[in-house]
Amino acid sequence: MTRCCDTPEGAPCAHDTIPTVPMPGWEHREQLLQAAAELHTAITKFTESFMPMARALADSYAQFVRQLREAGYLDDQDQPVKPADRPAWQSPYGPPKRRR
């Protein structure tokens, strides 16, 4: 058995004692438990109602990405496909210098 501190075997550990002073909020413990249960119920209902919409959204996004890939706008790593050739005015360095 592992112990939490370096006290000799059989000696009482300071961490083994149960606090005798009531913790703040214990006088409202039942109300806090009721509020926590109501919050849990509300979050559960929200999650159950949200999940079908989230799944539908994920499915439509996957279909959109698949269509972009099939149309040739995305490569196999879902990165935008760079145009093979572009006019000089689209170059990030500007048009080429004229030779004399």
Automatic annotation (TrEMBL):
Region called Disordered, residue ranges: 72-100
Top-level taxonomic group: Bacteria
Name by which UniProt lists this protein: Uncharacterized protein
Organism whose genome encodes this protein: Streptomyces phaeolivaceus
